[in-house]
Design goal:
The protein is an alpha/beta fold. The chain is built from 13 helices and 14 strands. The longest helix has 25 residues. The radius of gyration is 20 Å and the shape is globular. Bound molecules: magnesium ion and zinc ion. Zinc ion (ZN) binds next to helix 11.
């Protein structure tokens, strides 16, 4: 008993002297460095159980498992215990609780500025990547200010406001087949954007301003022809944005984890989660080489009330049960790596990301 206590005292002394508890996978040398770039992943609908399911199906080999810090985000919206993706995205992007369905606005419809807009004003390069339409709620939270997430053609107009340098996703129709007859693709070209419509065109572009409209609305699901595209978009966005000497902010959405959970299809959930995890690997590789990049992965809400009632990691199988075809109120995970990553551990309200991102970059609103 006495020896045990002595060991404990020595361990505590060690923690105090080194200033940290050295855990496997914990890269302490990066903690005190300067943060220049932020790459944020939002796995739409991704709860802890979705990560567990993806981890099991991928036989315990997710990139997410390499992240040294983790925490939780509380997702309630201003008007509902259970958030939607518009209010959930707005909380992360703008640091305010708003009503379900609203984008980049306070509940009284006054404008809430997004972290992307603040960082653009401060000279950083900015980017948005999504497997859904780029005008869909999650990416739109970072660029649009609209009382309804369903106003896709109005939301597309916000991409002309100059605050986003690279956007890659679906949504061509909302830019080019519009009720008002405007061709926003042509207007973006006049602003200096390179417009691309296929992954090959995207890869070949050398422009610093890049708009990729890679599907008429949403891209297909991973299992139906999208394999590798999210990784490619992630790689391209980082390549373009990292040319900016002042740094960059990039949000990448794994949109369809949510859709698989709405459909109560576990294979759809895990294939989309593993697909986003491959894109996380691209970002992590960049961050490890760069040393000045913070990578944060989180979610806007849990979808499906997912439970795992059985499984086998060696075989990569899970038995799933869903409590709902809608979102749930569960907290969602946060994973972080790089300088400033320690600020993202613990339990936080989803509005904390906005201030935390500005704080690690040393930028005031
Ligand atoms: Mg979404
Ligand atoms: Zn949803």
């Amino acid at each position: 008993m006495k020896a045990k206590r002595k060991h404990l005292i020595l361990l505590l002394l060690g923690i105090i002297l080194t200033g940290s508890l050295l855990l496997p996978g914990c890269r302490n040398e990066l903690i005190s460095g300067k943060t220049k770039n932020i790459i944020l992943f939002i796995g739409d609908g991704m709860g802890v159980t979705h990560v567990t399911a993806g981890m099991t199906v991928n036989k315990a080999a997710l990139n997410l498992q390499k992240f040294p810090y983790s925490g939780f985000s509380i997702t309630h919206s201003a008007d509902n215990y259970i958030t939607d993706s518009a209010a959930g995205g707005t909380a992360i992007a703008c640091g305010v609780k708003t009503n379900n369905g609203m984008l980049g606005l306070n509940p009284d419809e006054s404008v809430a500025v997004s972290v992307l807009e603040v960082l653009h004003e401060n000279g950083l390069a900015t980017g948005l990547v999504s497997t859904s339409s780029i005008t869909h709620a999650t990416p739109a939270s970072f660029i649009a200010h609209n009382s309804s997430r369903d106003n896709y053609e109005d939301i597309a107009l916000h991409f002309l406001n100059g605050s986003v340098d690279v956007f890659l996703g679906g949504g061509e129709n909302h830019f080019r087949k519009r009720a008002d007859g405007r061709d926003l693709a042509a207007e973006l070209e006049e602003q200096g954007f390179d417009l691309v419509y296929t992954p090959a065109e995207m890869k070949a572009s050398s422009s610093d301003k890049l708009a990729g409209l890679l599907a008429e609305v949403h891209m297909p699901r991973e299992s139906e022809g999208r394999t590798g595209i999210l990784e490619e978009m992630t790689r391209k966005a980082i390549e373009v944005l990292s040319r900016e000497k002042k740094g960059f902010f990039l949000m990448i959405e794994g949109s369809m984890i949510d859709w698989g959970a709405h459909a109560n299809e576990i294979d759809y959930v895990t294939s989309e989660l593993i697909d986003m995890d491959r894109a996380v690997g691209v970002a992590l590789d960049f961050a490890q080489k760069d040393g000045q990049t913070l990578v944060v992965i989180t979610s806007d809400h849990e979808t499906g009330g997912l439970s795992l009632t059985g499984g086998n990691t060696d075989e990569g199988t899970v038995n799933a049960a869903f409590a709902t075809t809608d979102h749930s109120a569960s907290m969602v995970p946060i994973f972080s790596y790089g300088p400033g990553a320690q600020d993202f551990s613990g339990i936080h309200d989803n509005t904390f990301f906005f201030d935390a991102f500005l704080k690690v970059l040393g930028i005031r609103k």
